[in-house]
């Protein structure tokens, strides 16, 4: 019932210890001097008692004196409160490092007095706690470890286990201390799955060790183990120009690899006026995640018009590592508009000429004129358009000439931002008969004539060479050297045949 019972001995009684929570001795501290054990202890024995040291090459546990290799009666303890240093000399601490203090009532204690025995927790008589340590896994910013408490150190009855990580082998700069487990009461005791709590730096060498502290504040360390975190890779990226406007450039970026250890990347376009990108402006920042390759359209805005620039596509992954494409040169448009090429199509009543404003800077308006002549110099004004402020806007004109070759000249102007801009676009077009000129015989291979068309042919070379129209042989070179140089209307094809003497 947790108390001591007192009996009067009629002479034939045996005294036994009942369950109790009373304690009559305390181990305050313990140290070793050579093979001598020195312990500071406090006693509060109810009767005369004998202090015994049990020791051996391994722990015999408590409550069983016979399980220990040796026992030494150390001292006689008188009743009452007492704090003293207990010295046990002549031990072989290297071969028998385990010990336990055992206090029992003296044999002279009679039945009218307290009869008791008390054990302290066994401990190992070694200078400091001992541990083994291993690095189990290493990633980019994390690592996991396992450690085993091998001994609790001199007088140790419990130990706390932690792991230290440092940036140097001397542990002058400890960057993380991981509390693994406290209150280990028996050894060996292994703990696994110990992970760092402070993020590590990639591709960096660290040093780690297990640390044990027993209840007497004695500290012991395992051997130091070094490890290096993994090295992430850089993204792989490419790019190309997708066109430019008055004050912007369009770029197409593509990423084919995020880099080892990363599952996403931010895609940018850097724009500079110099090819070395000594100074640049970054645009974009689109996050790309998922299956690769993947691409994005990127726009650089706020640029100067009519200016040459250099661009590069840059991808930054989750590690902050960047990959860049090759340099992409482009030039912004000088004018605050963009126009389509001039088109000319034969229609009923003549030739339909057309050019469109396909892009226009916000706030800008353009005027346009069309002049037509047999040359650009004698072209005369035939139509005007004023104040075009939306796009696309077509500027069309029907020219009624029935035959001949002419020049169409569109002139577009605008005043924008205090600056005057003008652009001239010219097209030469033919009305009626189309004439084809083939500069060499080889150019005739793919030539096909339509009804009403003609072609100028080069001279034949050898006497046996000839031209054939409509699969009919129409001319050959004679001894006078005359040659066929033209085929009239109605021909649907021209073939050139060269004479091969070997074939006759």
Describe the structure.
The chain is rod-shaped, with a radius of gyration of 51 Å. By secondary structure, the protein is an all-beta fold. It has 5 domains: 25-124, Immunoglobulin-like; 130-228, Purple acid phosphatase-like, N-terminal (Immunoglobulin-like), CATH 2.60.40.380; 236-331, Immunoglobulins (Immunoglobulin-like, Sandwich); 339-431, Immunoglobulins (Immunoglobulin-like, Sandwich), CATH 2.60.40; 435-503, no CATH class. Residues 14-19, 433-439 and 468-500 have low confidence and may be disordered. It has strands spanning 25-33, 36-45, 49-56, 70-77, 80-88, 98-105, 117-119, 123-124, 130-138, 143-151, 159-166, 174-184, 189-195, 205-214, 219-221, 225-228, 236-244, 249-257, 264-272, 281-289, 294-300, 308-317, 322-324, 328-331, 337-339, 343-347, 350-360, 366-373, 380-388, 393-399, 404-416, 419-431, 435-437, 454-456, 466-469, 472-476, 486-487, 494-497. The protein is built from no helices and 38 strands. It is 0% helix and 53% strand.
Compact overview of the structure:
This protein is mainly β and 504 residues long. It folds into five domains: 25-124, Immunoglobulin-like, CATH 2.60.40; 130-228, Immunoglobulin-like, CATH 2.60.40.380; 236-331, Immunoglobulin-like (Sandwich); 339-431, Immunoglobulin-like (Sandwich), CATH 2.60.40.10; 435-503, no CATH class. Helices cover 0% and strands 53% of the residues.
């Amino acid at each position: 019932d947790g108390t001591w019972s007192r009996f009067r001995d009629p002479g034939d009684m045996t005294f036994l210890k009942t369950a109790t929570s009373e304690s009559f001795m305390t181990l305050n501290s313990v140290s070793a001097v050579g093979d001598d054990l020195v312990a500071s202890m406090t006693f509060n024995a109810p009767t005369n008692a004998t202090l015994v040291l049990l020791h051996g090459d391994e722990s015999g546990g408590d409550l069983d004196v016979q399980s220990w290799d040796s026992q030494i009666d150390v001292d006689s303890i008188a009743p009452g409160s007492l704090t003293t240093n207990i010295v046990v000399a002549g031990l072989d601490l290297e071969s028998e490092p385990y010990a336990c203090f055992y206090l029992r009532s003296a044999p002279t204690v009679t039945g009218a007095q307290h009869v008791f025995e008390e054990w302290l927790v066994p401990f190992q008589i070694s200078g400091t706690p001992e541990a083994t340590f291993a690095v189990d896994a290493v990633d980019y910013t994390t690592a996991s470890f396992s450690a085993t408490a091998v001994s609790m150190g001199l007088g140790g009855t419990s130990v706390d286990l932690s792991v230290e990580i440092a940036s140097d082998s001397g542990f002058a700069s400890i960057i993380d201390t991981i509390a693994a487990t406290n209150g280990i009461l028996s050894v060996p005791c292994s703990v696994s799955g110990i992970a760092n709590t402070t993020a590590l730096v990639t591709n960096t060498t660290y040093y780690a060790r297990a640390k044990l502290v027993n209840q007497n504040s004695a500290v012991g360390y395992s051997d130091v183990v070094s490890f290096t975190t993994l090295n992430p890779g850089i993204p792989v990226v490419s790019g190309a120009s997708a066109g430019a406007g008055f004050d912007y450039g369009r770029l197409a970026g593509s990423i084919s690899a995020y880099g080892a250890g990363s599952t996403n990347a931010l895609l940018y376009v850097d724009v500079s006026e110099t090819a070395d990108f000594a100074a640049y402006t970054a645009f974009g920042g689109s996050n790309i995640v998922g299956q690769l390759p993947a691409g994005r359209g990127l726009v650089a805005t706020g640029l100067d018009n009519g200016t040459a620039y250099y661009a590069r596509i840059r991808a930054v992954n989750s590690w902050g590592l960047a990959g860049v494409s090759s340099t992409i040169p482009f030039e912004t448009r000088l004018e605050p508009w963009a126009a389509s090429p001039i088109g000319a199509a034969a229609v009923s009543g003549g030739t339909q000429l057309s050019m469109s404003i396909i892009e226009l800077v916000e706030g800008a308006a353009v005027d346009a004129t069309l002049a037509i002549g047999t040359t650009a110099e004698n072209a005369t004004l035939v139509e005007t358009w004023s104040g075009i402020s939306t796009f696309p806007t077509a500027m069309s004109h029907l020219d009624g000439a029935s035959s001949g070759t002419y020049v169409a000249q569109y002139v577009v102007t605008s005043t924008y931002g205090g600056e005057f801009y003008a652009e001239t676009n010219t097209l030469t077009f033919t009305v009626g008969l189309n004439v084809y000129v083939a500069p060499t015989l080889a150019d005739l291979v793919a030539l096909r004539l339509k009804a009403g068309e003609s072609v100028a042919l080069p001279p034949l070379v050898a006497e046996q060479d000839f031209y054939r129209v409509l699969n009919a042989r129409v001319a050959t070179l004679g001894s006078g050297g005359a040659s066929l140089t033209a085929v009239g209307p109605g021909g649907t094809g021209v073939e050139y045949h060269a004479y091969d003497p070997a074939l006759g």
